[in-house]
Design brief:
This protein is mainly alpha-helical. The protein has one domain. The strands form 2 sheets. It has a two-stranded antiparallel ribbon with strand order 1-2. It has a two-stranded antiparallel sheet with strand order 3-4. Helix 8 runs antiparallel to helix 9. The longest helix has 32 residues. The radius of gyration is 24 Å and the shape is globular.
């Protein structure tokens, strides 16, 4: 026993020494970030810093598959966000929280009358402490309530299916069954939403085969983890989108694609349509699977599945639109049909606007990937560092099996279609008839598009070092992988520190 302990101690100390520069980087980044955001060393939150630093340091010693590493990174950093994100401070979190409350009371769908928008009075107690740190509220002393109040903002979730709220609802139900506090219900709802996202990402990365490294890095973009650690339904939606993308790429690696594969992908696409409608276009990727992997009958099946998915999407759009007319205050100046007519009549102006949106996409829209709260605070100064980092990841990621030209074409067409769908949804649904602008678009809406396109980039470490005639083994693939995930985790840590400094100091 003593020999085993001695051997373990020796091995641990050796590994600790080998990772000394990583450990130093963690603590230096903590201090530098704190000072950068005008934190005073005299008021340094020592306990928080110690807990955060030790937790991230522990990640350095976790070994195993990429998908397991990503799962642990999401869960560890996300749990911090669950606790430190103030009350309903994630975008539209009070709306999503009210929907989870509504579902926990047995209502899968929203009512058709405004007077029936009734939810637990917990929403009123929560909104009294809007954007305040959880620990600075008395929500820990208030038990979850069955009393009902009218909450009209519940109607703002009409575009989302109940399915994307099941994890949050499960957390609230646990609080109700055990008569816990509202504080506990918020933490549990956030935690199970985070857990679902982490599990979906784990499965998606596992299915992605040789693309696991780059997929894992893109899955833990800070805003993805931040949103997952809230009541936002985007956690489930993004997880499902990542899974659909990974399945498509796994089809490209197969000798033959089965009917079962096609049907599962169809069901996944329809489920995505009920949460993030523009991403239903992912089902179009099936048309671009190389012909040697599918028979003519399977292509006909694909056409049938695409048509069915389109009908389901239109039906869902009709249902949610009808609900808008009944329970949501309608601005007469917001009319998609009339706006389409106005746009056709003013097509040159519309084209100029779309060109500007395209040019401004990276410098303006992508910045919101590092914007938190209700777009209230940010670390935009880090976006360019992050873009450089992501570019390096794409360049040095191990080479996946070569994609056929037809599949690459499909990826680009579908990606552009999704981007256009997101932009046009915002243009038609959120702006007045004569308003030639696109408002409300955030970079996080395109997370799925980034993953889809990045996985199609066929550049690798081999290309960078082939002149030296070195092998992947000699290139020390594992060390490079560990370094990349370490840097990605540091970016999440910086984002978390931004929240802590904003609200707790």
């Amino acid at each position: 026993m003593e020999k085993r302990l001695s051997k373990f101690s020796h091995s641990f100390l050796k590994e600790l020494y080998e990772k000394k520069y990583y450990l130093i980087a963690i603590w230096v980044t903590l201090i530098v970030t704190y000072v950068y955001f005008d934190g005073h060393l005299a008021f340094l939150p020592k306990k928080t810093f110690l807990l955060l630093g030790l937790s991230l340091s522990a990640l350095l010693f976790i070994k195993g598959k990429v998908y397991n590493k990503v799962f642990l990174i999401i869960m560890l950093t996300g749990t911090f966000f669950c606790f430190y994100t103030p009350v309903m401070d994630s975008p539209d979190e009070n709306f999503h929280y009210s929907r989870a409350l509504y579902i926990s009371e047995g209502h899968l769908y929203l009512p058709s009358n405004k007077q029936d928008l009734l939810v637990s009075s917990d929403i009123s107690d929560v909104e009294k402490f809007f954007k305040k740190p959880l620990v600075n509220t008395d929500l820990g002393r208030k038990e979850v309530s069955s009393k009902k109040v009218q909450y009209n903002n519940l109607a703002n979730t009409n575009g989302y299916s109940f399915a994307s709220y099941l994890p949050q609802t499960f957390g609230i139900l646990i609080a109700k069954v055990f008569h816990l506090s509202i504080f506990a219900s918020i933490l549990l709802g956030r935690f199970f939403n985070l857990l679902t996202f982490a599990l979906l990402c784990r499965f998606a990365i596992k299915k992605s085969g040789p693309r696991q490294q780059i997929f894992g890095i893109l899955a833990i973009v800070p805003i993805n983890v931040y949103i997952a650690a809230s009541f936002n339904q985007d956690a489930v939606a993004n997880g499902l989108i990542f899974l659909a993308i990974s399945l498509f790429y796994s089809f490209l690696d197969k000798d033959k694609v089965s009917y079962k594969d096609l049907f599962i992908y169809f069901l996944l696409s329809v489920l995505i349509a009920l949460s993030k409608l523009p991403y239903v276009l992912l089902i179009g990727l099936l048309l671009f699977i190389p012909k040697e992997k599918m028979s003519r009958k399977k292509y006909l099946t694909v056409v049938l599945l695409i048509g069915t998915a389109a009908l389901c999407s239109l039906l869902w759009l009709k249902i949610t639109s009808a609900l808008n007319l009944n329970v949501i205050h309608v601005n007469p100046q917001i009319n998609p049909i009339e706006k389409i007519k106005y746009t056709i009549e003013n097509m040159p102006e519309f084209i100029r606007m779309m060109v500007k949106e395209g040019v401004n996409f990276i410098p303006f829209k992508l910045q919101s990937l590092f914007t938190f709260g209700w777009l209230a605070y940010d670390v935009k100064s880090f976006i360019w560092f992050y873009l450089v980092f992501i570019s390096i990841v794409i360049l040095i990621s191990p080479k996946a099996p070569k994609m056929k030209k037809i599949s690459k074409l499909g990826v680009w067409l579908v990606a552009l279609g999704i981007i256009f769908g997101i932009l046009m949804t915002a243009y038609l649904m959120w702006g007045e008839i004569t308003d030639m602008s696109i408002k409300g678009i955030q970079g996080r809406y395109f997370s799925g598009v980034f993953v889809l396109l990045a996985l199609a980039v066929n550049v690798s470490a081999q290309l960078m070092i082939q002149d030296n005639n070195l092998s992947i083994k000699e290139y020390q693939k594992e060390k490079v992988e560990n370094f990349l995930f370490f840097v990605a985790t540091l970016f999440i840590m910086v984002s978390l520190l931004t929240t802590i400094i904003q609200y707790y100091l």
